Amino acid sequence: MRVVVLDGYTLNPGDLSWKGLEELGPCTVYDRTSPKQLPQRALGATALLTNKVVLDAPLLDRLPELRYIGVLATGTNVVDLAAAAVRGITVTNVPAYSTHSVAQMTFALLLEMVNGVGHHSEAVRAGRWSRSPDFSFHETPLVELSGLTMGIVGYGAIGKAVAALARAFGMGVLVHTRSPGKDRTVRYVDLDTLFGESDVVTLHCPLTPETVGLVNARRLALMKGTAYLVNAARGPIVDEKALAEALDSGRIAGAAVDVLSAEPPPADNPLLKARNCVITPHIAWASLAARRRLMDTVVGNLRAWMEGRPVNVVG
Q1: How many Å separate Cα 78 from the centre of its chain?
Q2: Which residues are catalytic?
Q3: For 56, which of 107, 173, 253, 292 is 20 to 30 Å away at the CA?
Q4: pLDDT of residue 187
Q5: List of the chain residues with pLDDT < 70
Q6: Are residues 162 and 266 in the same domain?
Q7: Number of other CB atoms surrounding residue 235 within 10 Å
Q8: What are the Cα distances from residue 136, in Å, to 114, 116, 264?
């Protein structure tokens, strides 16, 4: 069996070990793989491991020896699952490895918007406090979260972890999900109600054909002028042009995103110059603890498949 990791750098930039995979058989690890390099690197592999490298039907047709695809993430939109199933290729993913890290980052993004810690630290270093006539000064509104309402779109493991943090901050919680449960600590509502009543809307739903562009101009228009949007899910869930227009016009108070529709973003992405927009480079998942869990599960998934008892199978 030959194992090929197509884009391993983001999972392991050098602070983890590939030993677990290497113990399972011959293993080649590439930091990154371009579309041009992909066919040759994948040829002859029994198992391919991918994070963002797209494995579509035309490629799978060229890989007769391929029997297993391991996605180094939770989302599986980079793999043509239907094509893999037709060809008898098992596809696995890694659920729930980054739950606490993403929930933590969600609040880091929100707190930057409502407290401006980074902004005010830079203001101090730039000498603006030293030049102030007062012992205390602030350049952005300071917003207390207690008593406000958080609306959570998607209520899987991450959504539930974010809800717990919101309650700890004294916030009420609205939830929109495909499968409402019996959690009495939240109120289940439709999307329009959630966007209209929330002081903070945070996205934790998967990227599917139904969620592409879910946050569009119409839904942004439903939001309060004092409300904030947080996206630590997937970039295409948000219509970035509509969001930039809502920010620049003052339609909403601010947005913070860890994901964009194209990553890295082209220079003309409208959010890069939008007013009151915090952007981080898709790092919510990437704490050392989360990546260690991810690595352990990737190895466990492949080992289980080799032993004839596949786990975390998708498709």
Answers
A1: 14
A2: 234, 263, 282
A3: 292
A4: 97
A5: none
A6: yes
A7: 19
A8: 17, 14, 38
